[in-house]
Amino acid sequence: MSQIRALIVDDSSVMRKIVERSLRQAGLDLSSVIEAGNGADALGLLDAHPVDLILSDINMPVMDGLEFVRQIQAVEKLRSIPVVMITTEGSESNVVQALSLGAKGYIRKPFTPDQVKEHVLPVLGL
Amino acid sequence: MKMKTVSESSLPPVVFDGPTWTPLLELSAREVFEIMLGTKLRVHGSHADAKDGEFTALVGLAGSLCGVLSIRCTNQAARIMAGKMLDMPPEEVDSDSWDALGEIANMIAGNFKGKLSGVGNHCMLSVPTIIVGTDYQSRSVTGGNLIEVIFEFERKPLWVTLELHE
User: Does A59 touch chain B (CB under 8 A)?
Assistant: First the structure.
């Protein structure tokens, strides 16, 4: 498995650490992990740090995950990065909206490492 | 507390149902603790002392359900929760205990609303707020309904409370 550069976006630092641990438990070889507390900060990081995978919460201050996905899709060089939403906002309308905006997957909190593996590996073609 | 708005015209009527919702709230909390902390909660069997609620995490609900979900526990319990979530000793946990408690409240609220048929799409959650200390009172300005489940976590009470506006 090739090395993966990941961006984890969540306003909870605890959740960012749990997501990173779950990615490693899923067997991903992470060469780098960068973190942001909201969508706006994440967009700023993406300017200087190319990544292969993004995992993002929806309900965040400043810029939520849906707007973050919308803005990623508006930038040609970012559009191809797979985004998986990880959120408590598990309502059907949010799922539909996230996927219609360009997200490739959706994981609902609380989640197990196996669920992360099940949803993340396919979007990476693994 | 930042709150998203939901169009009033899209809201289905939701009637408070304490006898049905209480076990759903209990189940929602149990699931979050089992999946994220690897801990089985049990209902607290005796009188719970309010001074054991040093940390409170609040998550607002707006839309077809309108109110606040809160969880309260001791400082030490919050550290242990964070330690279990991060797989590290509680004594090494710092401000992550606040963050962890807020995230647990957020997950319980999301899990609960997901169990109410037809509510999930019409109820938004706020980002969590943390209160430190016990010398405060919370009061709804519109009256309302209350569900409270007191669990035992690490031999101390853990309050999970849902206060809904009428």
Answer: yes
